[in-house]
Specification:
The complex is a heterodimer. Chain A is mostly helical. Chain A is built from 13 helices and no strands. Chain B is elongated.
């Protein structure tokens, strides 16, 4: 079957210049151009911009190259603190979010309780409203509770943004673990806790890792709420970027964007390998 | 396959002669289960002798899997008792029962290797690493899968996965082995081989075994006794031979083997109108070129080749009958004589008696 399809495709390639193939390559070409212009284009511009001195219209490349902007950013004392803050809040957010959300995810996946659907859907509420509106009301509450400019306040804002990922994705992962794999472990003599630790959790782990990565990135990129609740006492990398963009030439923003992207890209690459190589990607016989 | 007995050395082994024979095996009394207001299992009694292999056979929805899951401990019965080797187990969770189950889709843990899968029950019993390794390798040797011990379940074939599941159950040295449709996911050829393997290992180790199946051929060829189930009850519980030769109910007669089912009675070899149901096995419909005692002229209507025999539909004046012919080739339209050697009569679903006619 697959071989047939393959040879048919091969014979189509060998026969050039049918209308079909022209339209097809035109569409593919258009797609590639759009991808380059709208995704790679801005990134490329960012990369060049970070090393540009003067860049005058209509030149395609900068007039001169410089590392000055990198120096400006690296020598800026506030930056180091911002990096530290970001690297403090993101892992802490993931940890707290996991502690709160994973048991909830398991309950959503495995138990039928009154209001289950309502709670599951209502988790989207935090993402359904404009973020700024939510944060303003949150700030009013935080003033009353004395949480403004505090670690706890920022943590609450960050965790709020990750609840949806940390609940829905692991819930789906837990639900996807076939019941009879758990039953087989019970039958072999494992207690309920042991079944969870030895079968359910390892099998749901790829989904949980995806959720953790997304939560980490969400926390790492969170700017609005952090700015409102934390500035100026706690500046993270994204909030620091706001002030850099406002106070310096655009080249500094470009340099900072690249710095901000490094942890995200590194994390994605690390997770990519684990997820694709994970057990969920393997075919196994489950009805 | 090399068969030796690495598992019978332990005192916990079911073949241990120390326990009196009467206390062994499985005994179920008055088992009852309703789900969602519907009675699934209705006052079921079943006793399996030590070392015996018993099949629960029936159409889907007859309650055979529910019964097995109650024996294994995944479902709690509403009432009734389940005893394994004289020990009441119905209040115990699955993890504390002396039974081991082989699941229909094998339920191997995909994140563990074959050896880890088989070794997991021993790890739970806190057995030493060296001893675990020895036992795992012995049981993998028994199912001839030692060469796959480091493979992940997804990398081996369905038949091999099946044997890993069996090994994982056997390594626990269970007092009772439970198999849920163990062969239904295998192709026809493999099914015959694996069922012979299972039977052989079961007899070697002398493990009391209960198999759930909907396949009568599978049940007939493996079992010491078969419990035919219908609508949450056991219709008949006897040896495969008795089940076929002396079905107690119309359901069993229809479910086991094939049968001409006709309304009426058999009088002097002729089918006459009547309130009862006649069951005539195709091999009891005798066809011949020349008239013989009890035979009636008939015409061949349809011939279905079935390999080593033919399934022949003949029309007599009183009824259409199906017969199995292995000696000569028949063809549609052929004139013949058909006689009924033996027929079973059922009234209200129960067997009334047998009536012989021809010869």
């Amino acid at each position: 079957m697959a071989i047939n399809a393959g040879s048919r495709a091969a014979s189509r390639i060998r026969r050039p210049l049918t209308l079909d193939s022209i339209v097809r390559s035109a569409l593919v070409g258009l797609f590639v151009v759009l991808m380059v212009v709208f995704i790679l284009g801005p990134l490329l511009w960012l990369g060049v911009r970070a090393f540009a001195g003067n860049w005058t219209f209509p030149h395609l490349l900068p007039d001169d190259w410089t590392l000055r902007w990198w120096q400006v950013v690296i020598n800026d004392g506030a930056l180091g603190i911002a990096v530290q803050n970001s690297l403090f809040f993101a892992p802490l957010t993931v940890l707290v979010s996991a502690i709160i959300c994973l048991p909830a995810a398991y309950a959503f996946a495995r138990f039928e309780f009154p209001g289950r659907r309502f709670f599951l859907i209502s988790l989207f509420a935090t993402n359904a409203f404009p973020k700024m509106g939510l944060f303003v009301t949150l700030a009013a509450l935080f003033y009353a509770l004395n949480l403004m400019n505090s670690v706890l306040g920022i943590l609450v804002v960050h965790v709020l943004g990750t609840v949806v990922f940390m609940t829905w994705i692991p819930a789906a992962a837990f639900a996807a673990v076939p019941r009879n794999l758990e039953e087989a472990a019970r039958d072999a003599g494992a207690s309920k806790l042991r079944v969870f630790a030895s079968v359910t959790l390892p099998m749901a782990l790829p989904g949980i890792i995806v959720a953790a990565v997304m939560s980490f990135l969400a926390s790492f990129d969170e700017a609005q709420g952090t700015y409102l609740v934390g500035a100026p006492a706690f500046m993270t990398m994204p909030t620091q970027m706001y002030s850099l963009v406002l106070n310096y030439p655009t080249q500094v923003a470009a340099v900072f964007s690249i710095l901000l992207a490094i942890p995200s890209v590194a994390l994605m690459l690390a997770a990519h390998k684990h997820i694709l190589g994970g057990q969920l990607a393997e075919g196994f016989q489950i009805k | 396959m090399t068969i030796h007995e690495p598992l019978t050395e332990s005192p916990a082994s079911p073949t241990n002669p120390g326990t009196p024979a009467s206390r062994g095996g499985l005994s179920i009394r008055g088992l009852h289960k309703s789900l969602g207001g519907r009675t699934i299992i209705d006052n079921l009694d079943l006793s399996v002798k030590e070392g015996e292999l018993v099949s629960l056979l029936g159409p889907s929805g007859c309650g055979k899997t529910t019964t097995l899951r109650m024996i294994a401990g995944f479902l709690e019965p509403d009432s009734g008792s389940i005893e394994v080797e004289g020990q009441e187990v119905s209040h115990l969770g699955a993890e504390n029962r002396p039974s081991a189950m082989v699941f229909q889709n094998y339920a191997l843990w995909p994140h563990m290797t074959v050896a880890k899968n088989v070794g997991f029950p021993l790890k739970l019993r806190k057995m030493s690493k060296a001893q675990t390794k020895e036992r795992v390798e012995a049981v993998l040797e028994l199912v001839s899968l030692l060469h796959h011990k480091d493979s992940k379940p997804a990398r081996i074939s369905g038949g091999e996965q099946q044997r890993v599941a069996l090994a994982r159950a056997l390594v626990q040295e269970p007092k009772l082995l439970l198999l849920d449709e163990p062969l239904s996911n295998l192709d026809a050829k493999l099914r015959v081989k694996v069922r012979e393997d299972i039977r052989k290992i079961q007899q070697e180790l002398g493990i009391t075994t209960v198999i759930v199946t909907h396949d009568q051929e599978e049940a007939m060829s493996m079992s010491d006794r078969i419990a035919v189930m219908n609508a949450g009850r056991i219709e008949q519980y006897s040896t495969p031979e008795a089940l076929y030769a002396r079905p107690e109910t119309e359901f069993v007669a229809t479910f086991i083997g094939s049968m001409n089912r006709l309304a009426g009675s058999l009088v002097d070899g002729l089918i006459t109108e009547g309130p009862d149901i006649l069951g005539i096995r195709p091999e009891d419909v005798v066809l011949a070129d020349a008239p013989f005692a009890g035979a009636v002229p008939a015409t061949v209507e349809r011939v279905v080749p079935r390999g080593h025999f033919q399934e022949v539909y003949v029309r007599r004046a009183d009824a259409q009958l199906r017969s199995f012919v292995s000696s000569e080739l028949m063809h549609p339209g052929q004139r013949t004589y058909a006689g009924i050697r033996k027929a079973m009569t059922f009234r209200d679903g129960r067997l009334l008696g047998e009536a012989g006619a021809a010869r």
